[in-house]
Amino acid sequence: MSIFAVNYLCREVLRDHAFRAAMKADPAKALASLDLTEAERRALVAGDVGALYRMGVNGFLMGYLARFEVCGLNVQNYNERMRAVKVDELGQPVV
């Protein structure tokens, strides 16, 4: 259920302007009330999209974090971090 929450919050960054502003101002505080694991919370605050992708978070939805420059992300570093994730022949992350 928690990965669903991460996917949902990525979508909310697009839709909810107040949530987006809160994520830009203080991501840790904005995430405090959400049902996330500690690993998800740490990865989000650090902008570690590679770790989130390996956990099962949707890469397209995480792109909204970069688009709106939250969690220290921008399009350039998002692309670099996602390209660093090793995948198998089906595109599934390899741990």
What is the distance, rounded to the nearest whole angstrom, between the alpha carbons of the first and last residues?
Answer: 21 Å
Ranges where pLDDT stays below 50 over 5 or more residues in a row are none
**What fraction, in percent, of the residue positions are helical?**
55-70%
- Helices and strands, in order, run as HHHHHHH
Number of strands: 0
| Biggest β-sheet description | none
Taken as a percent bin, the fraction of beta residues is: under 5%
The oligomeric state of the chains shown is: single chain
Shape: globular
**What count of domains describes the coordinates?**
1
Structural class label: mainly alpha
Number of helices: 7
Mean pLDDT: 93
Radius of gyration using CA atoms only: 12 Å
Primary descriptors:
95 residues, mainly alpha
Short description:
By secondary structure, this protein is mostly helical.
Reconstruct the topology from this structure:
Elements: H1 2-15, H2 17-25, H3 27-31, H4 38-46, H5 49-55, H6 59-67, H7 75-83
Describe this structure in words.
- By secondary structure, the chain is an all-alpha fold.
- The protein has one domain (2-83).
- The protein has seven helices and no strands.
- It has helices at 2-15, 17-25, 27-31, 38-46, 49-55, 59-67, 75-83.
- Helix 1 (2-15) crosses helix 2, helix 1 runs parallel beside helix 6 (59-67) and helix 6 packs antiparallel against helix 7.
- The longest helix is centred in the N-terminal third of the chain and has 14 residues, at 2-15.
- The chain is globular.
